[in-house]
Design a protein that fits this description.
- The structure is a single chain.
- With about 450 residues, the protein is of the alpha/beta class.
- The chain folds into four domains: about 120 residues, Rossmann fold (3-Layer(aba) Sandwich), CATH 3.40.50; about 70 residues, Alpha-Beta Plaits (2-Layer Sandwich), CATH 3.30.70; about 120 residues, Rossmann fold (3-Layer(aba) Sandwich), CATH 3.40.50.720; about 100 residues, Alpha-Beta Plaits (2-Layer Sandwich), CATH 3.30.70.
- The chain contains 13 helices and 22 strands.
- The strands form four sheets. The protein has a six-stranded parallel β-sheet, with helices on both faces.
- α8 links the parallel β12 and β13.
Length: about 450
């Protein structure tokens, strides 16, 4: 597949890294020579210094033979114009644009991005994607990671195994006997900074992070089995009233009107603007690193601290401080990948990486075959993929025990007629089933091939 990426920032680099690793023909355009040089040196891609919305640059990058354009520059208008030119002048079939300004997405402008106006097939809004991820974590305090599949009926969750976890040192294949009516499957284990697919004889150890596929109505029970009590956070303190913090506060007011929430913002004009847009949220103007401000926000009684300022260091330090002052749980936004390896030792329970969330959303539309959902975990070390099995798929018609799957791949669930089925050796996948699969990064391309549309299909 030939792909042009406009923008070589964190998201553009991440998408290029995924696609190049899988053997796609990737070209990246950016106005910054240093970014283009870096991406060309580190990845097997073509780099072009120039403006991604200029026809001559798109032409040089191979737009005439392009299957997809992904516009993820820092400027909405550049992304929009790049998609328009890609459609009008080069007839590129698939166009994805990152658009941050929410005014473009208001309901009364709903037809703006149709093919007759500005033809963008998929719009990615990082603030909304991250905001929705935060809201999901509020329902799962203590979870390291969470993502929904099958229209919310199935959840992929990450859970830490502490010393008191009651199922340590138990072979995974025995868990089915211990909990025969539990619809949950362990698919991945992260141990000593190494992520691997879970095997039937593997045993959990203290300090492990475990990734599971769980039926949504059994998430609470699953977390209790691992020693985590799941209670939705009802008293919340949000640090940062930027786009993400304001979105989370507004959605909480809409979805959970009885939630007690405080919003802390150091910039007075931004704090005033937030106060004018919120009805039931108390907005405090001050530094989230100020202990007096945190006490004024009743941090000692809070169920969760959500740190989503634009400064990683502020997010990390405020989360640590909140926990020390008595807050039960914390969740912080981290952009810098180098910080992610140290936060566990600081008492931070969970963190979100906007880059990974945005990349996961884009990958849903990049993957070939009948891919329905993609979630990237541990900064791309693995993916959890939901896909539909066609009659030409090698998965169809054979018992699972006879499938020759790579060591880095595990089937977590099969969805048939909206019912979740746990994989067992004798089970046979049928055409039309949806399969949720865990795959290490190096095996993603092989999984994609399992669901690719064959010519025989037509």
């Amino acid at each position: 597949m030939k792909v042009i990426i406009c923008g070589a920032g964190q998201v553009g680099y991440g998408i290029a890294e995924h696609l190049a690793t899988e053997g796609n023909d990737v070209a990246v355009i950016d106005t910054e020579p240093d970014l283009v040089q870096q991406i060309s040196d580190n990845l097997d891609v073509q780099g072009f210094v120039g403006h991604g919305a200029h026809p001559d640059m798109l032409d040089r990058a191979g737009a005439n033979e392009c299957d997809m354009l992904i516009a993820v520059t820092y400027h909405d208008e550049v992304n929009m114009v790049a998609c328009q030119i890609a459609h009008t002048m080069f007839n590129i079939p698939q166009k994805i644009a990152r658009i941050r300004a929410q005014s473009y997405r208001e309901p009364h402008w709903a037809d703006l991005f149709t093919r007759n106006h500005m033809p963008i097939d998929v719009i990615i809004s990082p603030e909304i994607e991250v905001g929705e991820a935060v809201l999901q974590r509020l329902n799962l305090p203590g979870a390291l990671d969470a993502f929904s599949f099958d229209e919310g009926r199935i959840t992929a969750i990450g859970i830490s195994c502490a010393d008191e976890c009651p199922i340590l040192d138990t072979p995974l294949d025995q868990l089915t006997d211990l909990f025969p009516d539990l619809f949950a499957m362990i698919v991945g284990i992260s141990r000593n900074n190494e992520l691997f697919a879970a095997g039937r004889q593997d045993q959990l150890q203290a300090g492990d992070s475990v990734y599971l596929i769980v039926r949504a109505d059994q998430v609470e029970r699953t977390m209790k089995i691992f020693g985590h009590k799941k209670d939705r956070a009802n008293r919340v303190v949000i640090a940062g009233a930027g786009n993400i913090g304001l979105y989370v506060a507004q959605r909480l007011e809409q979805l959970h009107p009885f939630t007690n929430q405080k919003l802390i913002e150091i910039n007075r004009p931004i704090a005033v603007n937030a106060a004018e847009q919120l009805d039931r949220t108390i907005v405090l103007n001050g530094s989230v690193l100020n202990e007096d401000i945190l006490n004024e926000a009743d941090i000692r009684d809070a169920d969760m601290m959500i740190a989503v300022t634009n400064d990683d260091q502020v997010n990390i330090l405020s989360s640590v401080l909140a926990k020390r002052l008595g807050c039960r749980h914390n969740l912080c936004l981290i952009n810098n990948r180098s910080y992610m390896t140290i936060v566990d030792g600081l008492g931070i329970e969970a963190h979100l990486n906007p880059r990974s969330i945005t990349i996961s959303r884009i990958l849903e539309h990049v993957r070939r075959g009948r891919i329905k959902g993609v979630y990237s975990i541990e900064d791309g070390a693995a993916e959890i993929i939901e896909a539909e099995a066609l009659n030409t798929s090698p998965l169809v018609g054979k018992p699972l025990k006879e499938l020759d799957l790579p060591d880095g791949v595990r089937i977590g669930a099969i969805i048939r007629e909206n019912e979740m089925i746990l994989p067992q050796g004798h089970f046979t996948i049928k055409q039309g089933d949806r399969v949720i699969i865990f795959a290490l990064g190096e095996n993603v391309h092989e999984v994609e091939q399992l669901f690719r549309v064959s010519r025989d299909y037509f």
